[in-house]
From TrEMBL:
The chain crosses the membrane at residues 28-49, 93-111, 123-141, 147-168, 180-199, 242-260, 267-286. Keywords: Cell membrane, Disulfide bond, Heme biosynthesis, Iron, Membrane, Metal-binding, Oxidoreductase, Transmembrane, Transmembrane helix. It is found in: Membrane. This is COX15/CtaA family protein. Its main location: membrane. It is a multi-pass membrane protein. Pathway: Porphyrin-containing compound metabolism. InterPro entries: COX15/CtaA_fam (IPR003780), COX15/CtaA_HemeA_synthase (IPR050450).
């Protein structure tokens, strides 16, 4: 299996130096990617806090914030939660400021890519996802549905991937076999991300321990927890955890050899992909052993975003 070290016919007009406006587009796209990574970090902080990860006393408080959306807490409980609410309000405000700045930056990027057809198409996709997330925003704070949280999660990851594609377009074609391999790895990684999002938003992360234990628990629970339109706590979550672990193994088996293959034509991109995947593989067990510490869970989320962006650049 080989890859061809040639200019890719799929990316006309995006080669550095072809047009000064395209050089500006790449710089602005890198800035956009940095802003989106910060936004996804803030969004993940809000999502994980709403799920109850990092609450005190752990794990007795797990899921309490989601239940509060369904049944508002008593006056005494609201007073106890005031410091945490103040912190979350600050995070939410920062999230909104960065989101507005990112939208403005994306509009500026539109002028820089007006002469490149592929870049223009990806810019439109980036703008569409941004507007979708803006419309979804008002629902996020007051909805306990996993589907809403997943919409935010996947939308933010899509924005990061599109920003990286605009900032660092691939310049080499790949063989059909490698392209199929890329798609298989991307589908596996996307499944892992969706299942991880479901695990946190459905209150499933403490439902079982280890692959064998999750399989035994899942066999007796059914698969209703995979429905993102069910409210948290309405279905046991071991199937989500079991599938998430299986998807993690599939991602490593598919994407690590792929990164090794791609190193010959793009050492930097392949290195980022491999480093993110290896860090995810190490961080997963550490995160479980540490009782799902908030900082480790947040880092797990961001590493998945970086891995998906690195992989999506080649699709």
């Amino acid at each position: 299996m080989t890859t061809a070290r040639i200019r890719s016919p799929a990316t006309p007009g995006i080669v550095a130096g072809a047009d000064p406006s395209l050089r500006w587009l790449r710089r602005l796209a890198w800035l956009c990617a940095a802003l989106v990574l910060a936004i996804t970090s803030l969004s993940a902080s809000l999502r994980l806090a709403k799920a109850g990860i990092g609450c005190a006393p752990w794990p007795a408080c797990y899921g309490a914030a989601q239940q509060a959306l369904l049944a508002p807490p008593a006056a005494g409980d609201e007073a106890a939660q005031a410091p945490a609410s103040t912190t979350l309000d600050a995070v939410r405000s920062a999230h909104r400021v960065l989101a507005v700045a990112t939208l403005f930056l994306i509009l500026v990027m539109g002028a820089a890519c007006r002469h490149a057809r592929r870049a223009r198409a990806e810019w439109w996709a980036l703008l569409a996802v941004t507007l979708f997330l803006a419309a979804l925003g008002p629902w996020s704070a007051r909805s306990a549905l996993p589907a809403v949280a997943l919409g935010n999660l996947l939308g933010g990851f899509a924005m990061l991937a599109l920003s990286v594609r605009l900032a660092a377009p691939r310049r080499w074609a790949v063989t059909p076999v490698v392209r199929a391999w890329l798609w298989a790895a991307a589908v596996a990684l996307l499944a892992q991300i969706v299942l991880g999002g479901l695990a946190s938003t459905t209150g499933s992360i403490l439902s079982c321990d280890g692959l064998a234990d999750c399989w035994r628990a899942a066999a007796g629970q059914g698969w209703a927890a995979l429905d993102p339109w069910r409210l948290p706590g309405s279905a046991a979550g071991a199937p989500v955890q079991w599938l998430h672990r299986v998807a993690t193994g599939a991602v490593l088996l598919l994407a690590l050899p792929l990164a090794w293959r791609l190193r010959r034509i793009d050492a930097w991109g392949a290195g980022v992909l491999a480093a993110a995947l290896l860090a995810l593989a190490v961080l997963g067990p550490v995160m479980v052993g540490a009782g799902f510490a908030f900082s480790l869970t947040l880092a797990h989320n961001q590493l998945a975003a970086i891995a998906l962006a690195a992989l999506a650049r080649w699709l």
